[in-house]
Give the backbone structure.
Amino acid sequence: MKKHIISLIIILSAMSIYSQENFEGIENNPLVKEWKTPFETPPFSEIKNEDYMPAFKYAMEKGRREIYHLKQVKQKPNFKNTIVYLENSGALLTRISGVFYNMLYCNATPELQEIAQQLAPLMTEYENDISLDKQLFERIKAVYENPGDLNSEERMLLENTYKSFVRSGANLSDNDKETYRRLTTELATLTLKFSENVLNATNAYTKIITDKGLLAGIPETALAIAHEKAAQKGSDGWLFDLSQPSYLAVLTYADNRDLRKEFYIKYNTRAYKDAFDNQKTIKMILKDRYELARLLGYENYAEYALENRMAEKVIRVYDLEDELLKYSLPAMQKEIAELTDYAYSLGFEGKIERWDFAYYSNKHKSSLYDVNDEMLKPYFKLENVIDGVFGLAETLFGLKFVSNSEIDIYHKDVKVYEVYRQGKFMAVLYLDFYPRDTKKGGAWMTSFRDQKKTGNGEVRPLVSLVMNFTPSTENKPSLLTFDEVKTFMHEFGHATHAMMSDVTYSSLSGTSVPRDFVELPSQLLENWATEKEFLDKFAFHYETGETIPDTLIEKVRKADNYHAGYASCRQISFGLLDMMWHTTAPDKIKNVLKSERNVFDKLEVMPIVKGTCMSTSFSHIFAGGYAAGYYGYKWAEVLEADIFARFKEKGIFNKTVADSYIKNILSKGGTAKPMELYINFLGREPKTDALLKRSGLK
């Protein structure tokens, strides 16, 4: 009896550590209470900003208690009572995080940004308390050393769990653990600050033009959008800003060279020597990442990051980049020379500047192939494109989409669908297409909940695609550029990875794979965008209903490799910049711009634009999880080109190939090594030939 009393005192004492907050009434918090909504989707309309912090603190306390109880288990550590228990712990915190962090990127307000800054150190402390817990790690290590009889997915979960703790400082000394805590806390705040600076710098610049003559060349659709934006601000004229559709309309079409130059410089000096300058933030991020990697026994952060990737070593990244550059660089040099000659033929003098490139490229491409975005856009009404992409998913993967207006949404522009396969519910899909001040730039796939299996059945994912496409106007529907169509298909490819997931553990589901493998499904789906059999199914003129002409499709196919060398070199240069930042000792980085130029100058074919800096807005690597991983886009491009060659060989709608792709890759998530999954599907390791041939570079 005395023993039980002592144990109770210990438990109560431990619990009191986490009971300093007053959680009275927390059960009524919409983030905490049970969601009695269709498919347990988030009740966005009920959630207020003031709900987040109390919910997070409560969920963290709940998670800590779960870990405490795990450590008190008297039975010998095994896979179920330790690894599976740990996998399932913190479920409430995961749910709340899924809502908050997605809102932070697609519907951020200054209030949410402030909450995120307050939250960053708390979340990092919580994560560190778990990963640096010696007693907990001893249990995990005991299972790792004596795993028992496990299947392949269980072995992968065990390996990932053990390595995650080691890579998160579990083997460090007490003093080094404190250093680890400091570095990770600083990084959480710094990366968040970087992202906020980019968003704020992007929103800081707008230009209202009242003289329509200055806008010559810009298509009427873009002008209509700009006119509506100005009206919303209570102004006459046309408002252009640095959102993607607006910025690209100026750079691609404006005859006024000074206007193009102004927008190019404004866009490429975002968060550089302005009110939201990210230079110091970059240096601090790199310093902390370097120290973190060295603390854990790695030469630099790139070596640390690559350990769990397909590439594994820095040298393999450089080998890939070098092999592709052998073909890409000469092609780019030839392309720029041809573009310059073309510009001269139109009366241009001097050298092609950065703000001239898109303008003359568009004209040159149109002259070569008699095709341009304005010719294509009438066939890419957004609603038709959605139908086309959904139809492709049905043909290849057997997916059916049912619109549901009853599911709560976080913004009026969001569309929601239930997804089914062979009568089985597979997912909820949210589509968020248009730019707004509270949304960061670019396009991405995310999820509010991941797939997993439980003792009571299966939890299916809640998937979201967020983009910044050309919106509709008062007189015209949303008509997409061909690049926007491909972007939609890219992100939808990610969505298929999440929706087709069929694994037991959520940490292994869907897109929970190495960074240089995660882009495979997304980039693969882009291939169908130039296929006649696909386009014929949905590309109808929004006014006449006419199917996109075969001649136009053929022009699109031929034009798809226009400036393939430039596009390849551009991606490679970003990957090389990323690797430079994460292989260089921070004391060698004195000047952000000079360090950047040392990389870009080696591939430069146009005059340098003084005062512009790409790194200060390079959110992928400084705030988006792609640190020492941007090369992954080219790596995955090699993989997907190789796989699409199989589809082309057997038929782009071939069910046997598609079913094998589902079975061996899409459904598997991270339950096996990527190379193993790849070989299971294709029967061999990847080769670069398919990519180089498809791009016309070899």
Summary: Residues 1-18 have pLDDT under 50 and may be disordered. DSSP finds 28 helices and nine strands in the chain. The longest helix spans residues 314-345.
